[in-house]
Amino acid sequence: MTEAREPAYARRAPGEPCWVSLMVHDLAATEEFYGELFGWEFRPGPRQLGPYVRALLDGREVAGMGRLPADRRLPVAWTPYLATDDVGRTAELVRLCGGTLAVGPLDAAEAGRMALASDPSGAVFGIWQGAGHPGAAVAGRPGTPVWNELLTYETESVAKFYATVFGYDRQPEESAGPDQVTLRLGGRPVAGLRGVGSALRRDRGSHWRTYFEVADADATLRQVVDLGGRVLGPARDVARGRVADVADPEGAEFSVLQDPR
For domain 17-130, which architecture applies? Predict the structure, then answer.
């Protein structure tokens, strides 16, 4: 895993991860879990997909959460949104390259325009054309998303998809594993792809995973359990810090990363 660490800024380059969002069944309980875990507060956001809130850290927007519409079959999972200057054009390119559009494109009030899509392997991601809301307003501190990684069977085909749709450069990370690729924009790492072969869980399939920065990974694991979540494996030390995989009470999986600095 190669971590992207830089200040948040207003205008996001096309292809840059700019937001993460979680759709759940019990929004109030989910707010309580993440509020306790990350110190988030919440305020209402656009309601195109039903009740939706934006999570804030010290008054600055960091992520979104909404209630799953009863008529849509969407996963309970953290979903990264990738920036675009034209969501309609990007959505069409997704289709032309073998992906699928699940929602949109549609307006999210004055905030911008969005779509939900899946890549050829079935992994769901968002597309965001920011207007009044360009994306997360804070980064590089505990409680903020710090990295997004696609877990898939093999990386070659999906790497071509994302490179074609969003213009990424692809860099194999041989030291990190036999099938790991970093997606880069302008030489900067922005996301990762990890091929896990037969270890890919059949009940999940290919999926994106969001990493959130924490001050103390081991203490966070204890807190996750105390709040009704699950620890999916012991914390482990990697090149960029101490990391662990967890799930919230509704089963949405994510990772926490303690920077060694």
Answer: Roll (3.10)
Is there a common fold for 17-130 and 145-258?
A: yes
pLDDT over 60 (residue 1): no
- Tell me the pLDDT tens digit for each residue of 93-112: 999 999 999 988 999 888 89
Break the chain into its structural domains and give their ranges. 17-130, 145-258
pTM over 0.90: yes
d(C-alpha 114, C-alpha 76), whole Å: 18
pLDDT (0 to 100) of residue 8: 43
β-pairing verdict for 236-238 and 52-57 = unpaired
In this predicted model, what pLDDT tens digit does every residue of 138-150 receive, in sequence order?
Answer: 899 999 999 999 9
For domain 145-258, say whether CATH 3.10.180.10 is its number: yes
Q: Tell me whether residue 198 is exposed, middle or buried, using C-beta atoms within 10 angstroms of its C-beta: 0 to 12, 13 to 18, 19 or more.
A: exposed
